[in-house]
Task: inverse folding
């Protein structure tokens, strides 16, 4: 957890760990969310 | 993590995009597994190579090293973060706070649970399994059916031809298909302090076929050449003939799981393509028929629309790359015919 991942070949670019829990209220939306779209997209990934 | 370890060893983080009334709220939170909590308390990484407890720090002997990073599902009102070397971890869908590990009220007895359980798109029945079910490097695969209310309705204990990674299975209307291929482990290699998996190109691959409503003793193992079937699309059957679609490579797809005999990694053998297999359940000795459907595309992480699991389907989805690079990305393919968008 406190290691530097800077030189790990598999953890670069888009795979670079973010390392924080987060909450974003009312995300910026590019375009428009279709009316009637109501639900949750859930995902899990390796950090 | 060691610099040469598998990226599969990294901690899982769950996130939700909650969309309603034209707005979207986002939450992300680490799954607080015993490993995550132990590392956090120590402020250092106490766990060694991917799924090798013999390389862990002595202070965490007996502490699960699972990372809950592979898949997350909703089932019977519960959100479950999945990693194939342990039970699911329950996560609160609203807050993403981690509950405990979950064994379906005690009905699920295997110590491991696949990251890709199949939920029949029409009946809601879950077909799940655990491999290495009788301990590290064991060839035991235990299969469970679980009703939509979360009750375990059957348990079947299988012995695979050899111990291997079983990351994904497929279900058709009447059968469960279990790929076994040369991604192997052993107590010997774990005691040697190596990463869990190594690739053995000298052993045949197998597809195990079990009737969805049959006994474990009815399993048929059909042998084939070296290959790796990490993910399937899905399968259908008619008159005892099964058709399976999967994303398959000829050899080891993962450079971070080295060859057990020290052969260098072969990128050509790692190329994963969309393939169609047919099996005649009554004639296992005949092997299988294999066809590569879109030879120019290389792709992985195959799946179908979950609503069609266990039933006929027209489309498959995967992340794929084409020699004309501009066309790479998420793709929908129609394995039943032969076109893509
Ligand atoms: Fe997967």
Result:
């Amino acid at each position: 957890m406190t290691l530097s991942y800077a030189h790990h070949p598999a953890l670069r670019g888009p795979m670079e760990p973010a390392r924080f829990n987060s909450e974003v209220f009312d995300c910026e939306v590019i375009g428009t969310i279709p009316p009637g779209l109501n639900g949750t997209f859930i995902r899990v990934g390796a950090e | 993590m060691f610099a040469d370890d598998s990226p599969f060893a990294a901690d899982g983080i769950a996130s939700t995009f909650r969309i309603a009334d034209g707005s979207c709220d986002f939450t992300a939170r680490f799954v607080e597994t015993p490993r995550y909590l132990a590392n956090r308390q120590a402020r250092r990484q106490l766990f060694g190579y991917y799924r090798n407890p013999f390389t862990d720090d002595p202070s965490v002997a007996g502490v699960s090293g699972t990372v809950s990073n592979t898949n997350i599902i909703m089932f019977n009102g519960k959100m479950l973060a999945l990693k194939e070397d342990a039970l699911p971890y329950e996560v609160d869908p609203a807050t993403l706070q981690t509950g405990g590990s979950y064994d379906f009220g005690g009905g699920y007895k295997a110590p491991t649970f696949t990251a890709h359980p199949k939920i029949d798109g029409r009946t809601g029945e879950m077909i799940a399994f655990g491999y290495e079910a009788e301990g590290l490097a064991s060839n035991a695969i235990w299969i469970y059916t679980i009703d939509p209310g979360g009750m375990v309705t059957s348990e079947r204990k299988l012995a695979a031809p050899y111990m291997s990674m079983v990351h994904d299975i497929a279900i058709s209307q009447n059968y469960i298909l279990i790929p076994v291929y040369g991604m192997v482990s052993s107590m010997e290699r774990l005691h040697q302090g190596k990463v869990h998996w190594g690739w053995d190109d000298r052993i045949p691959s197998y597809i195990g076929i079990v009737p969805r409503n049959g006994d474990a003793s009815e399993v048929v193992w059909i042998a084939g050449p070296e290959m790796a079937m990490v993910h399937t699309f899905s399968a259908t059957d008619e008159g005892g003939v099964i058709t399976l679609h999967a994303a398959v490579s000829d050899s080891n797809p993962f450079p971070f799981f080295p060859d057990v005999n020290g052969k260098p990694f072969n990128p050509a053998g790692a190329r994963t393509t969309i393939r169609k297999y047919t099996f005649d359940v009554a004639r296992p000795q005949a092997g299988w028929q294999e066809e590569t459907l879109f030879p120019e595309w290389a792709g992985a992480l195959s799946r179908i629309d979950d609503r069609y699991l266990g039933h006929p389907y027209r489309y498959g989805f995967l992340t794929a790359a084409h020699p004309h690079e501009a066309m790479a990305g998420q793709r929908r393919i129609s394995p039943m015919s032969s076109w893509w968008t």
Q: What stands out?
A: Residues B 70, 115-116, 167-168, 231 surround fe (ii) ion (CB under 6 Å). The first strand of chain B starts at residue 12 and ends at 20.
